[in-house]
Write a structure and sequence with these properties.
The complex is a heterodimer.
Chain A: H1 5-30, H2 62-69, E1 77-79, H3 85-90, H4 95-102, E2 126-127, H5 136-148, E3 155-160, H6 167-179, E4 183-189, E5 192-193, E6 196-197, H7 198-201, E7 218-221, H8 226-241, E8 247-252, H9 270-276, H10 281-291, H11 297-320
Parallel strand pairs in A: 1-2, 1-3, 3-4, 4-8, 7-8
Antiparallel strand pairs in A: 5-6
Helix pairs in contact in A: 1-2, 1-10, 1-11, 2-8, 4-11, 5-6
Chain B: E1 9-10, H1 12-26, E2 30-34, H2 50-54, E3 59-61, H3 66-78, E4 82-89, H4 97-104, H5 107-110, E5 120-125, H6 140-145, E6 150-152, H7 157-169, E7 174-179, E8 196-197, E9 211-214, E10 219-223, H8 226-240, E11 245-249, E12 252-254, H9 258-268, E13 271-278, H10 283-292, E14 305-309, H11 318-324, H12 328-340
Parallel strand pairs in B: 2-3, 2-4, 4-5, 5-7, 6-7, 10-11, 10-13, 13-14
Antiparallel strand pairs in B: 1-8, 6-12, 9-11
The chains are: A alpha/beta, B alpha/beta.
The complex binds thiamine diphosphate.
Thiamine diphosphate sits between chains A (82-83, 130-132, 160-163, 188, 190, 192-194, 255, 259) and B (35, 64, 66, 88, 92, 95).
Keywords (chain B): Oxidoreductase, Thiamine pyrophosphate
Protein name (chain B): 2-oxoisovalerate dehydrogenase subunit beta
Domain Transketolase-like pyrimidine-binding (chain B): 10-185
């Protein structure tokens, strides 16, 4: 399976949007968190600024999101993780409403009730969770529903290699295997679960290999390359769509930043962090587009500027939006 | 942190890790496990320094497998070990709940007391910094509701150390819930009152003994954890308005110091329960019921009042979150209302 020039360009532009989005968030997140606004002795105050709470950014992991989502339709489901932005963007969750949600604004996807780890966009069939291992069962459910309703939609569960040790991983693989669900499990192996290295937490080297225990094809994507992900995901999604059942794909990817913003990463070797930028898939993709004459410098800078504007507009919208009224907190426990 | 003249001040996080270290020193059967408790030192610093001191055999980073490692703690405890199994946020208990409430809480009873399960589960509670509905809960009443689990909720570093040592030595499972907003973390605004003088030597704070944090005569505020500090600020404000509030820090929910509640309420004849957990079916209802059951001897001046999260998940957005978590001003307003209201004969 080879991607078309249009698909390649979409993947590149979406990766750029994601990266610019995350890089902007790095700065915005720190606003108002540093002294002297806050109590003495603090490095920063996580609860202050326009974006409070925890912030897990996905910079470096863009290839996984675009290589998978390029194959998805609006009626396909994606269930993401605590690190959700890249998949949300690639699944076409409206960026302005998503950003407003992360700012806790009334114009957000959930009028501020969800937040960065809890983005819900039923229109684009995207959701996520702050609980590790929680993405897989709902994806199985979406796949089951699609099958029962006679649709040819598929569901994708995203998870980290750390979450692949959670009980839900094994239960979901078994359910998907025994019921032949149209679901694809995408494991983002960035090597780390916060400070815990994959090798010290996972008894086998490959989570894709674990598929064998449940009769499910497992595919390893060894490098953080959008086109390699494109191929593996394309086959898996096609198989799921045409009644061929589930697949587990593990992609070796890279977390360019700390686990969360403010993470000093005392546990991670400095060389690893500095080396990661050289493995960045975005400039590599630009070079490839140029090399294959899919894009020239003019087109690349046009794409760059458009991505810049898209991201800027999202942050502008979020900043200028109103906060919800406190009384709204009591609404929607039930519908 | 000053020198060892007994004037040393520790944050709650430091006090907790010091307590663990001293028990690990004393007792070979104590070990610690959990996510990011090794080189990271625990996301909330409760295990800082332990890996360097005791090595990876006794300070074990676990995979993200809470049902697995909590059940493992149980199994090891049944064999005579004394595991401390940290859960990063209390909100994550769901994935391990069966091991906790069907096994850890019941095996001792079902074995007619023949199985001892000295497991301590430290975990972080509380919101106030916009971490959203899955990372901001207190949930201590959920555990207190299930027979067979002791539930400890310290409010300051002195108590935190003594209660942790007590918890490790206890032959029963203990849930040890620390509020993030009083741990003294470098990345979170916190109530400095929780950072206290802590003796270097080992000591215990017995379970089931509430503490009068501030004596008063007009109203009793029964509370715990971070809310103790909010209550103190409220009490100061109220003192300026001529209202004398007594603050009772429960310190443990199981066992619960019912006598302390009754003694204080008998004196003040007014009761406010200030809680950061959900309102219904929880701590505040329990304390109110204790008072209701003693209305034959207690002569209340006013109906009991409760402040808690109004049965909604904790919202992310700041104004929403601030609205549902009881604040200092809410405590002041509730007390003023109490002082103004009357029980009709
Ligand atoms: C059930 C549960 N346990 C623990 C956590 C805390 N936690 C959040 S992210 C994380 C590490 C996740 O690692 P991984 O799955 O590899 O994803 P990554 O963060 O690397 O993207 C942990 C332990 C959680 N959110 N939920």
């Amino acid at each position: 399976m080879r991607c078309t020039p249009e698909e390649a360009l979409w993947m590149y532009e979406t990766m750029l949007v994601i990266r610019k989005y995350e890089e902007t968030m790095v700065k915005v997140y720190m606003e108002g968190k540093l002294p002297p606004h806050i109590q003495k002795g603090l490095a920063f105050d996580i609860g202050s600024g326009p974006v409070p709470g925890e912030m897990h950014l996905a910079a470096g992991q863009e290839p996984v999101a675009v290589g998978v989502c390029v194959h998805l339709r609006d009626d396909d489901t994606v269930v993401g993780t605590h690190r959700p932005h890249h998949f949300a963007i690639a699944k076409k969750v409206p960026l302005q409403a998503m950003t407003a949600e992360i700012f806790g604004k009334a114009t957000g996807l959930s009028r501020g009730k969800g937040g960065h780890m809890h983005l819900f966009d039923p229109a684009h069939k995207f959701s996520c969770s702050g609980i590790e291992g929680a993405s897989m069962p709902p994806a199985c459910g979406a796949a089951l529903a699609g099958k029962k309703l006679g649709r040819d939609s598929v569901a994708v569960a995203v998870l980290g290699e750390g979450a692949a040790n959670q009980g839900t991983f094994h239960e979901s693989l078994n359910l998907a295997g025994v019921w032949q669900l149209p679901v694809v499990f995408v494991v983002e192996d960035n090597g780390w679960a916060i400070s815990v290295k994959k090798e010290t937490a996972t008894a086998v080297t490959s989570n894709a290999a674990r598929g064998a225990a449940y009769g499910i094809p497992g595919v390893d994507v060894a490098e953080n390359d959008p086109l390699a992900v494109y191929e593996a995901a394309g086959e898996a999604i096609e198989r799921a769509r045409t009644g061929g059942g589930p697949t587990i794909i593990e992609v070796k990817t890279h977390r360019l930043l700390g686990h969360f913003q403010g993470d000093g990463e005392v546990y991670r070797p400095k060389e690893e962090v500095s080396g990661l930028r050289e493995l960045d898939a975005i400039p590599a993709m630009a070079a490839r587009l140029r090399g294959e004459s899919i894009a020239d410098d003019d087109l690349l800078s046009e794409i760059d500027e458009r991505a810049e504007r898209t991201v800027a507009a999202a942050y502008e919208f979020a900043r200028t939006s109103p906060l919800p009224e406190p009384a709204e907190a009591l609404e929607h426990v039930f519908v | 942190m000053a020198a060892s003249n007994g004037q040393r001040t520790l944050t709650m996080a430091q006090a907790i890790s010091e307590a663990m270290a001293s028990e690990m020193e004393r007792d070979e059967s104590v070990f610690v496990m959990g996510e990011d408790i090794g080189s990271y030192g625990g996301i909330f610093g409760a295990t800082a320094g332990l890996l360097d001191r005791f090595g990876p055999e006794r300070v074990i980073d676990t995979p993200i497998s809470e049902a697995g490692f909590i059940g493992t703690a149980l199994g090891a405890a049944a064999e005579g070990m004394r595991p401390i199994a940290e859960l990063m946020f209390v909100d994550f208990f769901g994935v391990a709940m069966d091991q906790i409430y069907n096994h850890l809480a019941k095996n001792t009873y079902m074995s007619n007391g023949n199985v001892r399960l000295p497991v301590v589960i430290p975990t972080a509670i509380g919101g106030g910094y916009s971490d959203g509905a899955q990372h901001s809960q207190c949930l201590y009443a959920t555990f207190a509701h299930v027979p067979g689990l002791k539930v400890v909720v310290p409010s300051n570093a002195y108590d935190a150390k003594g209660l942790m040592i007590e918890a490790i030595r206890d032959d029963n499972p203990v849930l040890y819930l620390f509020h993030k907003g009083i741990m003294g973390l470098a990345w979170m605004s916190y109530f400095e009152g929780a950072t206290t003088q802590v003796p270097e030597e080992s000591y215990t704070v017995p379970f089931g003994q509430a503490r009068v944090v501030r004596p008063g005569s007009d109203v009793t505020i029964v509370t715990l954890s971070q809310m103790v500090h909010k209550a103190q600020l409220a009490a100061e404000d109220l003192a300026g308005r001529g209202v004398s509030a007594e603050i009772l820090d429960l310190r443990t929910l199981v066992p619960l110091d019912r006598d302390a509640v009754l003694t204080s309420v008998a004196k003040t004849r007014r009761l406010l329960i200030a809680d950061e957990d959900y309102l219904s079916f929880g701590l505040s209802g329990e304390i109110a019921a204790i008072v209701a059951e003693h209305l034959d001897t207690l002569h209340m001046e006013a109906p009991v009042r409760r402040l808690a999260v109004p049965d909604v998940p904790i919202p992310y957005s700041r104004p929403l979150e601030q609205a549902v978590i009881p604040q200092v001003t809410d405590i002041v307003a509730a007390v003023e209302e109490l002082v103004g209201s009357r029980v009709t004969a």
